[in-house]
Design a protein that fits this description.
Blueprint: E1 7-11, E2 24-29, H1 37-51, E3 57-62, H2 70-78, E4 80-81
Parallel strand pairs: 2-3
Antiparallel strand pairs: 1-2, 1-4
Length: 82
């Protein structure tokens, strides 16, 4: 869907095995601009959720045409690259 050069980072409560976090938080970084980022995010979240038997999945996108927010820095600092 997004091609090559994509970096996926798991962050949030699911990084800590001792925590009983529920949803899966993923930051997906691409080096190019993403047209229709909301659609892309929803499609990825839906596909991953189905693959994980309905577990809730939140997708945070990082691309050249999207404003970087503090959550992007938190995900990069505390997350685990997949």
């Amino acid at each position: 869907m997004l091609g090559e050069g994509v970096q996926v980072t798991l962050f949030g409560s699911r990084v800590d095995d001792a925590a009983k976090g529920g949803d899966v938080d993923l930051m997906i970084e691409v080096s190019r601009a993403l047209p229709e980022p909301a659609v892309v995010s929803a499609r990825i979240a839906s596909r991953v959720s189905r693959a994980m038997h309905g577990r809730k999945v939140d997708v945070l996108l990082k691309a050249s045409n999207l404003l970087e927010q503090p959550i992007h820095r938190i995900a990069a600092q505390q997350g685990v690259a997949l």
